């Protein structure tokens, strides 16, 4: 008898070959074919694991592509208007005062959005040097209730499709909240 790592292994050449194989199998081999041909399982394992990893990677990539949504600004949409036609998009802008038309009977909201002005260090809008009319898009949202915080001069994100004539047919209108809390000034 021979002792190895606390186990007693009896080396006996009188055992039949089938019992010797069960007592001392070769690593990563299985006797499956007639005629005692050994079949290696490592390539099948790696191919199967590779296919599983590819499937998981595809599912993660597809989920990220469909759920990660970003928005374009009004000026970006104006610059790329010809290539964005009839595509679903999200546009961030500011509701132009004097253009809001809400019909509660048909749940139709119509308004125009303009670019959100840049702010200086004091928080005042920066006026451009060139006196041009800012780009604007007409938005028509039908069948959805008007957002509670919707008002002229408010920042919004519009989800929908850009149609002919620069009209955005909106499926959803989201109002954005101010990034900083400013308490009401006491009088």
Features:
OB fold (Dihydrolipoamide Acetyltransferase, E2P); elongated; 2 domains; 11 strands; alpha+beta; 23% helix; disordered N terminus; 187 residues
Low-confidence stretches: 1-10, 21-26
Please outline the major beta sheet. Answer: 5 strands, mixed, barrel
Q: What is the radius of gyration computed over CA atoms, rounded to a whole number of angstroms?
A: 34 Å
How many strand segments? 11
**How many distinct helices?**
4
Class of the largest domain in CATH? Answer: Mainly Beta
Looking at the structure, what is the overall shape? Answer: elongated
Q: What is the total domain count?
A: 2
Question: What integer is the average pLDDT?
Answer: 76
What class, by secondary structure content? alpha+beta
Task: Give the DSSP E fraction (strand runs of 2 or more residues).
Answer: 25-35%
State the CATH superfamily name of the largest domain.
Answer: Nucleic acid-binding proteins
What does this structure look like?
The protein is built from four helices and eleven strands. With 187 residues, the chain is α+β, with helices and mostly antiparallel strands. It folds into two domains: 60 residues, no CATH class; 98 residues, OB fold (Dihydrolipoamide Acetyltransferase, E2P). A five-stranded mixed barrel has the order 6-8-9-11-10. Strands 1-2 form a two-stranded antiparallel ribbon. The termini are far apart. The N terminus is likely disordered.
């Amino acid at each position: 008898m021979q002792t190895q790592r606390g186990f007693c292994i009896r080396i006996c050449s009188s055992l039949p070959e089938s019992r010797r194989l069960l007592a001392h199998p070769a690593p990563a081999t299985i006797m499956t074919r007639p005629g005692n041909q050994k079949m290696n399982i490592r390539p099948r394992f790696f191919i199967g694991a590779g296919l599983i990893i590819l499937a998981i990677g595809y599912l993660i990539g597809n989920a990220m592509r469909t759920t990660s949504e970003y928005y374009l600004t009004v000026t970006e949409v104006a610059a790329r208007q010809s290539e964005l036609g009839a595509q679903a998009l999200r546009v961030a802008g500011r509701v132009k005062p004097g253009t809001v038309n809400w019909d509660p009977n048909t749940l139709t909201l119509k308004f125009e959005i303009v670019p959100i002005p840049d702010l200086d260090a004091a928080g005042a809008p920066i006026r451009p040097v060139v006196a041009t009319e800012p780009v604007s898009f007409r938005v028509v949202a039908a069948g959805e209730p008007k957002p509670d915080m919707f008002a002229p001069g408010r920042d919004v994100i519009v989800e929908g499709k850009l149609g002919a004539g620069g009209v955005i047919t909106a499926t959803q209108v989201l109002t954005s909240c101010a990034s900083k809390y400013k308490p009401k000034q006491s009088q």
